Amino acid sequence: MKKLHFYTSCSEKIGLLFEGKQCIDIFIDRQSTDARLGTIYKGKVRNVDESIEAAFIDIGEKKVGFLPKSEVPFLGAKDKLSSYLTGGASIIVQVIKEAYQDKGPRLTANITLTGQQIIYLPKGNYVASSKKLSQQLTDKWKNFLTEQLSSTEGAILRTEIANAEIEQVLNELDDSRKRWKQLESEASRHKAPYFLFQYPIVPDQMLNQYKNETFLDITFDKRHTFAEMKRDFPTLADKMRIRKEAHQIAGKHVNQWITEAINPVVHKQDGITLTVEQTEALSVIDIDSSRFTSRQNKQETIFRINQHSIRYCVEEIRKRNISGIIIIDFLKMGKKEEAVIVKELKNALREDPVRTEVFGFTQLGFLEMTRKRERTGLLELLTNRASSREPVLSVETMGYQLERELLEWNRNTECILLALHPELHIFLKETLTDDVLSNIQIELYYYTDESVPYYQIIRSGSKELISLYMADNQEIVIDKLL
Cα–Cα–Cα angle for 369, 330, 26, nearest 5°? Predict the structure, then answer.
């Protein structure tokens, strides 16, 4: 049975999906992340390149967005993109693929507004359906919505519509139309580029992605978020509750789950070890079995190890959100066994909500597969490095970890004195929100020190204790952070 755990008290929101005792997916929502998946902007056309049938759109973020002609729903096959878009023109767009390395975000003009029963497409001009919906229900609701929608509108039927009443669907359609009119109205009042709307990644997008799963438990650390999600996801409400230990999830601190998730070496209890290396070109998962024990013969043991490793590989791919080309170095086996491994891997990947494709084994015995890139990978998000061989946590990551540490500090403590690296000090000043500051009920003092890797708690306790330290170290410039 699966469990979902959300941590939303900090500026950085975190969602962890568990199957049994294993964490199999992590969503992280940061204020500093540009052009996140699903974000809607009023963009400004930089230029149109007919040779690649695409436009480059300024959305006000670090990188210019890429809008292919295929993502402009009101253009026909023979229409030229430049006949509709010209340099300096404005257009409402949505991010469908986040920026990666030197590439900007991929955009669409076919905006989607997600509801409980339907996904509304104000410019869609078609009605599609979830593959999990029966043909009978698909036909019923397609016919009904086709009558309700105008010639320019569209919708995608979600699985939840199977148990919906007509009035519920009509109310949701009406709400979606109103939301779109509000976005259009707001866009008309501002010059491009302009940020219009964003679904929170945690918990909203994560719950939307996994709402059809069967959960044993869905926990929250914040009562306000808990109440909102019970209202917005009524079918999951009976599984939702507040955690007693807000910072502890499945026996570990949330900071520990995050840092362990990018460890390049993963040891499993049955003796199998995975080594995960991510580079700009591709990602490689190597399987080692030096500690695996079995009474079977060598070939049977190798095959069994490879079978066990399938689940571990899928867990790491999903948890780290690895995308692009993925190579898995299974232990060498025969062609017959390779075919079984390919089949079992494809079956294991069916639960992955992100599209994957398994190509099979190469002549050298490596398994090749690809995984669609949607959200920023965990390694890139936490370290800002392309290689995973020696991951070093970024200033942002350590800043959020310090924020979580301060939020859970003993309330009997009056003051804390911190030594901060100058870069971390700047980050904290820019990031700590009023909402978070109101929850940290401790006076914080600090001084900057370039020799400190990130931060160090120098003293904690009463105001007198901090005053004594200041008196004994007058050469250090100490200031108040909070």
Answer: 55
Nearest CA-CA partner of 288 in 308, 317, 316, 260: 308
Which tens digit of pLDDT belongs to each residue from 408-467?
Answer: 887 778 899 999 999 999 988 887 766 677 778 788 899 999 999 999 999 999 889 888
pLDDT digits (tens, 9 = 90+) for 46-83: 999 999 999 999 999 989 999 999 999 988 888 999 99
Asked if 28 and 36 count as a contact pair (C-beta separation under 8 A), the reply is no
Please, which residues have CB within 8 angstroms of residue 456's CB and are 6 or more apart in sequence?
418, 419
Q: How many CB atoms lie within 10 A of CB 135?
A: 8
d(CA 390, CA 459): 31
pLDDT in tens, 168-201: 999 999 999 999 999 999 999 999 999 999 988 8
Residues (pLDDT < 70) of the chain are: 32-33, 291-296, 385-388, 433-435, 482
Distances (CA, A) of 339 to 38, 301, 368: 38, 17, 13
Amino acid identity for residue 123 in this structure: K
Q: How far is CA 325 from CA 200, 356, 368, 424, 426, in A?
A: 28, 10, 7, 34, 37
